[in-house]
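Q: What structure does this chain adopt?
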Amino acid sequence: MAKSKNNKPDKKNSENLKGFDIKVNEFGEIITSHKIDQINEFLDENVKDKKLEQELPSEEE
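A:
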């Protein structure tokens, strides 16, 4: 018997994302229920940017 997969999303931020809806129309355009500025603000607060956390290599010659 095969294992059933748990495809439920993590409900950690569910209250912050309440009312958020995203769709892609037939032309490939992304349609959201929130303004892009609000989405970017949420991502800045809740998602760590791995590229910014890496140490920059020193330029020793």
